[in-house]
Amino acid sequence: MILTAEISLYPNHENFIPPIDRFIERLNSYEGLQVQTFPTATIVMGEHDLLMDMLKVEMKAQREEHGMGIFVCKFIPGYEAL
Predict the structure, then answer these.
(1) Could you tell me which of 23, 80, 33, 81 has the C-alpha nearest to residue 57?
(2) Disulfide-capable partner of 4 in 9, 31, 41, 81 (CB 3.0 to 4.6 Å)?
(3) Residues 42 and 81 sit within 8 Å (Cβ to Cβ)
(4) Where does 2-77 sit in CATH, by number?
């Protein structure tokens, strides 16, 4: 099943752009996922299991690399946004 996720990351840093850029860079490294970035959110679309597995890995990596950050996500199962 296709899954679309809209993700916003709010790092708990004065210099918040580098953690966001790094997170987006890592999202773009996955084959099988379509990624499109907008000023306030990034849309990721792909197979449900691949997308959820990627989020599990990348949300943990963000925490380990940059510390506290807030993720705001919307999930739309079965919808092809891209």
Answers:
(1) 23
(2) 81
(3) no
(4) 3.30.70.930
- Whole-prediction pTM: 0.88
Where b means 16+ CB within 10 Å and e means fewer, 13-52 reads eeeeeebbebbbeebeebeebbbeeeeebbbbbbeeeebe
The two structure tokens encoding residue 21: 């850029």
How do the pLDDT tens digits run along the chain, 82 residues long? 999 999 999 998 888 999 999 999 999 999 999 999 999 999 999 999 999 999 999 999 999 998 889 999 999 999 888 7
Residue among 50, 59, 20 at smallest CA distance from 37: 20
Token pair of 4 as six digits = 């679309």
Domain boundaries, the chain: 2-77
Residue type for 8, please? S
